[in-house]
Amino acid sequence: MELRVLKYFQTVVVxxxxxxAALQLHVSQPTISRQLQSLESELETSLFERGHKNxxxxxxxxxxxxxxxxxxxxxxxxxxxxxxxxVISGIIxxxxxxxxxxxxxxxxIRNVQRKYPNINFEITSTNADVAHHNLTSGIFDxxxxxxxxxxxxxxxxxxxGASRWGILAPINSKIAQQDTVSLQDLLSLKLIISxxxxxxxxxxxxxxxxxxxxxNIVATYNLLYNASLLVAAGVGYALCIDGIVNTNQSxxxxxxxxxxxxxxSSLIWVKNRDLSPTAKVFLDQLTHDLSMNxx
Length: 295
Hints:
- The chain is α/β, with parallel strands linked by helices.
- The chain folds into 3 domains: 3-82, Winged helix-like DNA-binding domain superfamily/Winged helix DNA-binding domain (Arc Repressor Mutant, subunit A, Orthogonal Bundle); 90-160 and 265-294, D-Maltodextrin-Binding Protein, domain 2 (3-Layer(aba) Sandwich), CATH 3.40.190; 162-262, D-Maltodextrin-Binding Protein, domain 2 (3-Layer(aba) Sandwich), CATH 3.40.190.290.
- It has 10 helices and 9 strands.
């Protein structure tokens, strides 16, 4: 399976037409058709629904298309990072959870680009489960996750600052009149919690009891902004960290948990894997910025 053929497949799907794809790729239409037929034979599955005016994918084709996008993106990034002479250039991909500690990382990105203007950054807002997967598969160079989600397969650097856990509630709700939220309060609420796999384990550890399965969880979220809209609509109360959603001049209020529970964040990367020159530059700069921040 050649990257060239994967590019043919990707372009056909984007253009939804073999003729247009052939024009864009500067190859003949019969060449693309033959290559796609050979690809289906090699995979022993049909990628396209036949008999439609525009290109349509089978379920296997949809899956393969998503994988092809990742493969070609990783190939492009690898080639760009390898094709360096004396000028350090390339792309650094960071998958980041929603955390205020990202501010220091943002400052490090600024410092790196002042020294190495040919280094570009791609930042993806995501959760720890996706970050772990994309780090392992090589899509991300680094991830930023809460301390409850570091994992055993990753090296890490702790980032400064801690965020409080609590709930996001409509400002006119009864619970919003309280200063804190207790364990018993949580048991009586319709909750919207993070979809990350380790959150229930963390909840049990916080309260030193197996409470998580007794909670009334009505929805889960990946990114907190969408969860805040669910809260505003009256679906439930979002269990989250403070400082991500700006509640000033809004109809929402953050109420911290009691006892007080906080989480820090860490930058993580895969253990025992060589970093690209650009990734090493970033990590060295972050280490320097952290030392200056702590001095």
